[in-house]
Design brief:
The structure holds 2 protein chains of 2 kinds. Helix content of chain A is 26%, strand content 27%. Chain A is an alpha+beta fold. The radius of gyration of chain A is 42 Å and the shape is elongated. In chain A, 43% of the residues are buried. Chain B has 2 domains: 2-90; 109-350, BirA Bifunctional Protein, domain 2, CATH 3.30.930. Chain B is 40% helix and 18% strand. Chain B has helices at 2-18, 22-33, 38-44, 54-90, 109-123, 137-140, 180-190, 236-251, 304-309, 326-334, 341-344, 347-350, and strands at 127-128, 134-136, 172-174, 200-209, 221-231, 257-264, 267-276, 293-302, 318-324. In chain B, the strands form 2 sheets. Chain B has a 7-stranded mixed β-sheet with strand order 1-4-5-9-8-7-6. In chain B, strand 6 and strand 7 (267-276) form a beta hairpin. In chain B, helix 1 (2-18) runs parallel beside helix 4 (54-90) and helix 2 runs antiparallel to helix 4. Chain B is elongated, with a radius of gyration of 42 Å. The two termini of chain B are 83 Å apart. In chain B, 43% of the residues are buried. The chains are: A alpha+beta, B alpha+beta. At the A-B interface, helix 9, helix 12, helix 14, helix 15 and strand 30 of A face helix 5, strand 1, strand 2, strand 4 and strand 5 of B. Bound molecules: zinc ion (ZN). Zinc ion binds next to loops of chain B.
Amino acid sequence: MKVPITWLREYVNVDISIPELAHRLTLAGLEVEEIHYVGLPVPEDEQNGQGEHRPETKITGFSWDPEKIVVGAVREVMPHPNADRLVLCRLDDGEEEHTVLTGAPNLFPYLEDDELDPPLKVAYAREGATIIDAYSESKETEFTSIRRKKIRGVESYSMACSEKELGISDEHEGVIILDGDAPIGMPLSDYMGDAVLDIAITPNIARAASVLGVAREVAAVTDADLKYPSLDVKAEGPSIEGQVQIEITDPELNPRFVLGLIRDVERVPSPYWVQRRLRLAGIRPIDSVVDATNYTMLEIGEPLHAFDFDVLQERAEGETPTIITRTAEPGETLTTLDDVKRELDEFTELVTDTAGPLSIAGVMGGAESEVGEGTEDILLEGAAWNFINIHKTANAQNLSSEASYRFERGVHPELAPQGVLRCLEWMQKWTGGTVAEGLMDEYPLPPDDPIVFLSAAEVKRWLGMELSLQEIKELLERLEFEVQIDEEQIRAKTPPHRLDIGEGVVGKADLLEEIARVYGYDKIPETHLADELPPQRGNPMLEVEERVRDILLGLGLREVVTYRITSPEAEARCYPPGAKPEEDTYVSLQNPITKDRTVMRKRLLASVLEIVENNYRVRQRIPLFEIGPEFHPRPKDDSLPEENAWLVIAITGPRTPQAWQGSDTEAVDFFDLKGIIEELFQRLHIGELGFEKSQREAYHPGKCARVLVGKREVGVFGEIHPLVSDQYEFPETPVIAAEFALEPLVDHVSKRYNVEPIPEQPPVLEDLAIVVGEEVPAVEVADLIRQTAGEILTEIRLFDVYRGAQIGENEKSLAYNLVYQHPERTLTDEEVRKIRESILYRLDKELDAHLRE
Amino acid sequence: MREELQKIKEKALQALEEVEDEEALEAWQVSHMGRNSPLMNVFKTLGDLPEEERPLVGRQANEVKGALQKALEKKEKVLHQTQIRLSLQEERIDVTLPGRPKISGNLHPTTRTLREIYRIFGDMGFQIYRSREVETDEMNFQMLNFPPHHPAREMQDTFFVDGERDRGENPLLLRTHTSPGQIHAMWEYSSTNPADPPPLRIIVPGMCYRYEQISARSEIQFNQVEGLAVGKEITFGDLKGTLSDFARRLFGQGVGTRFRADHFPFTEPSAEMDIECFLCEGEGCTVCKGTGWLEILGCGMVHPTVLENGGYDPERYTGFAFGMGPERITMLRHRIEDIRYFWANDLRFLEQF
Ligand SMILES: [Zn+2]
C-alpha cells in the first residue's frame, strides 16, 4: 500500500517527522518498507546515514529546491522560429517573464490561442535547478541540473517539467499541467511536494489497506485525532427508489449490497491533483469516472464497481433492472473486463441481472456492462463479500485485482454505503453528473462486532506488565473501540470497520495485541522466564546423531546436506542398469516445481553420490558423509510415510593429499572405509561388531560387506559397482560407500561402559606369521587365535598379508602382532610358549594352517 | 709408589686435555684406564707390595682411578655438547615450506549454526524435540489456526503429496514450517497429565519445504528452528527477554534488538525480532536494505486456539513461540549471498567453515 503523506494528512495531523512516523508505524505492524520523497525536503541526516539516530527505513527520491522549482504560468505558446517540433512559452514565474522552450506535445494545441486566459499552470524549473535526467539510459535514477544553452538559435535556461523529471511517475509524454488554482511563484514543494510511504499490509491489518485505514493507525500510535471524510453528497436527481432492485440469494456470501446512481456524467480527465495522487499510489489515472472509483477505494478501503446503467436497462427489456447476487450455475460463463471468457465454478459468487452474469463479485467486472466511451448514467455498487469465498474464487480464476486484494482480506459491510456516497460525491465534482437521491441498501447479515471483556490481571498474565483499567481503556479507545470499565474489567465493543476481533478468549488475545501495539512493543519490559522449569528429557536420538557427526569429522570426513526432494530417475542411477525394481512407489509431489524434483528420496546413497559427482572436477579427495531421512510410503495405504534417519559415507581419491614431502597417493579402497567404520563403532562403544561378505545392488559383488552387531544387520558398505559408477561422472578412482540405518544403531550404543585398569606388569609381545589356504577368511584365523589364547591375549593386530614365492600357491601368510598381558602378574616365557603351542595346534587342526618358516 | 701414582694421574689428565673427539677419547681411555694402562698395572702389582703398604697404595690408586673416571665423564659431556653444536650448524630447514597436510573433516554450515542454537536454548532449559517432515494439512495448518482456504496460507506455498485416496480437506503435504512440532509436543506433554499438563520448553529444528522457484534468495527446502514455551506464568516480556538474550549470545553481547508487530495465525500478539545490523553497525547497508536492522525471527504469544488444540487451557496457560532460519542466520554471519550453496555442497564452499 503506497500512501502519499499529503493525502494521509487530510485525515490525521502528523506532528512528527516522516521517518519517525515510519518508525512508529513499523513497530506497530505496518511495516514501512520505503519512504519515497517526491518533492518534500529529504532530511539531510536521513539521506546519508550521518544522523543522530538510525535510518530505520530505506529512503529514496529527492526534494525540489523551493527557490528553483516553482509554479509557473504559461501566458502564451508561440512557434519556434527554427524548429517545428519545439514551441516557445511566455512564462510568468511570479517574479518576471521568461521565454521557455519545450517540445511537450500537450502544449502544441495552445499555439493557436494568442493570450491564454486563464494561463496554463506548469511546474517551472529555473536555471540551475536539479531534476531527474529523463533521457538517461541508466537503470539508476540520474540527476541533471539545468544549464543555459542555445537550442536552434534561441537561448534556453529553464524549463517546464514532466512528471518523470520530478520523480512523480514515469510519465514523460508532456509537461505537467497543474490545476488552475495553483498560486503563481509558489515553491512547487509547498504546493504539492510529497513523500510516499510504502507499507506492507499483513492479513490481520487488512483494515489499513486504505489511506483512511492507515490514518486511523497513525492516530492511534501517535495519539492524534482522526478526521473523517465527508459523506454528505448533494443529491439533485430523482430518487433511486424504483429505478433498480436488489436481490441477495445467500447473505453468508453477500452480507450487504448497496447501489447509488448518478446520471449525465462527462468522462473528462480528473483534476491534476487526483491524477498525481493516484500515480503516487501506483494506479494509472483513466478518466474522472474510473478515477473516482479508484480514488475512493484507496481513500476509504471500499472497492466499488461502476455499471453502465443504460446497458442494464436495455438488458432488463423495459422492466426495472434487478440486481441479483448468487453463485454461478453449472456451465455458466462470463467475459470479464480483461476480455477473457471465464468458466465459473459452482462456488463463484456473481452479480447478475435477469439477463445473466454482470461481474464476478468482488473480483472483476464483466465486459458488457463496463463503463465505456458513451456511458452517461452510472449505477455504482458497494458491497460486502465473504472473504474466504472471494479468496477461493480469485485463486480459481487466477485473477487478482485491487478489489479482490481487499475483499479477500475482509472489508467491513459498514464501508459499503460510505464508499458509494464518497464516490458519488467525487463523481459529481469531477464529472458534473447528477446524483440520484438516496441509496438502495440491502443488509441482511450485519456482522457481530464482538464485545470482549478483559481484566488488568489478564493483561499482566499475558504481557507481563501492569496497566490500569483506565490505561487499557484509553489505549483501546485510540483504535475506536467503545470501552466501558465494568468493575474489575473493561468491556470493549469492536468498532464497525474491523472484522479481525474474535469472541471469548480469542477476542482477549486480539485485544491484547492491540493494547501491546498501541502501547508500543518497545516499551514492554524484557524479563527472564520465571515459570517452573519443565521436565528435562534430552533427545537420545539426536545426541547419538551428533556423536556420529563428531566422530566422523574427526576421521576426516566432511558433512553434506542434500536435497530431500529428488526424482525416481536420479535414484535409479545408484542401481546397476535393470536392477531397480520397476514398480517402485514413492512419496511423490502433486505439484512439483521442477522435473528433477518430483519425489521424496528413498535412498540417501543416491543423493550423496550426486555430491561426489558434483565435486570430482574440483577435488581429487572426496570424503563425505550425510545424516538424513529416507522417505518410504507405507504400501497400499495413504497414511503418513516412514521417515527414517540414515547415515551414508562416501569416499574416493588419494588417501592423503599430494604434498612435497611425499604422500600416500594411492586411492582409498574398501579397507579405508572399513577402518572408518571400525573406529566409528569403537568410539560409539558398540560391541560385537561383525562383517560378512555380502551382495547388494549398487555395490561391487566381490567388494561388499554387511555390518552386523551381534546377529543384527545394521548397515552395508563396499566399493560402488562399476556399472553404477558408469552412470555418474565419477573420478577414475573407485568410490567406496556405506549405508547405515541410524535407529537400530542407536539401540546398540552403550550409554555406560567400564574402563579397564592399566596393568602394572609389562606385556609380552609376540609376532606370529600364519600360512593358511586362500579360501580361509582372515577373520577365522584371528577368531581362533583369540578363542585359544583367552583373556590373556589383550590385542591382536594383523600387520601383513603376503602371497608369493616364499609360500605355496593358493596360500597366504597372515602376520599378527599379539600382546599377552596377565591382569595381576608377569607372564613367564613358559606360559607364553604353551599358549603359542596350543594356538598353532588348533590352527593346524581346524584350519590346516601352519607357522610360516 | 705415591709419586708414581701422582705422575700417572698428571700424565693422564694432561693427555685428556688434548683429546678433541670421541675417537681420541676412546684411545685415551684404553691407554690410561685400560687393562694395560700404567694405573691398572699398579693394581696388578699391589700383591707384590709389603702387607702394610698395600691398603694405603690401594686407596691412593682408587682415588686416582676415581679422579680419572670423573675427568673422563666430564670430557665426554663436553665433547657431546660440542658435537651437537657442530651438527646444529649443518641441520638447517626452510621453514617457509608448507607443512605436511593434515585433514580433519568439518560440519555442514547449517549443522554448525544449529548446534549454536541448541546450546544457547539448552542453557535456558529448552529441550530439542523433532517431528516429521511429511505432514497432514491438519497439523501443518488447521491446528495452527489456518482454516482451509484462508488467505494466510498464501504466505506459505505448499508442496502437496499425491495419494490414492482423496483426503478431502486434510491432504498430505511437506511441512512448510516446523510449527506442527508445537502441536505434537503439546499433545505429548499434555497427555501425561491432561488435567494439569506440565510446562514445556522446546525447540524444534528440521527441514521445511516451500513451493518456490529456486534462486539465490529462495529454496524449496530450508531448515527452521521453532521454539515453544508453555506454562502458567509466561509473558510477552519473557518472550522479549529470552529472545534478546539469545540474540546477544549468538551475535554478541552488544547487539541491540527491536520487536515490531507482525502477523502469524498461530501467535497473538505476534512480532518480528530484528537485530542491529552487525555489518554496518546500524548505519544502513545493502544487506539490511538501508534500515540498519536485520530481520532474524518471527515470534509471538501462542494463540489461544493453538493452546487449546494442544491440550492446554488458554485461561490458565500462556506461552510464546518463535521460528528462525539457520541458513539465513548463517548467510548473514558469513555474508553468503546465494542460498543455493547450502545444498549444492561444493567442497570449495564446505571447506571454508
Ligand atoms: Zn546494514
